[in-house]
What does this fold into?
Amino acid sequence: MKKFRFRLERLLALREQAERLEAAALGGAMRDEARERDGLAHAQTVESRAAEEAAATGASGVQTVGERAHLDLAREMAARAADAAAEEVALAEARTQAARAAFGVKRRERKTVERLKEQRQAAWNDELGRDERRDMDDVALRSRTKEGGR
It folds into this structure.
């Protein structure tokens, strides 16, 4: 009997390729999200240092108006940077979720074709087994017929 041939093999290969591309996109989105999280952590560290510096300078008791304005401005800028970084993290998380969903779709599409291939392979194997049993039955029938005719 002929070797098993899945007629949708090309479609399966295309689905696998699409899944790999989506996996790469997901990996990129996850790396971007991690980078944005690192940026947020850095911005929060800078913000806390600015607040500590302002508190330490205020606790010493001697402070000019210019120093106070400078410290307030630094603290405000650090807070804005932290807020911007938090927004970037939220956007990166949304991109990661979208990439994860797209990857899930591509994975399901590939698995669907793979299951179809497995089902057709099983049906082909069953048919092959029936053909072999039929051939064996024919051989047994011929040998009995020959024995009976002697």
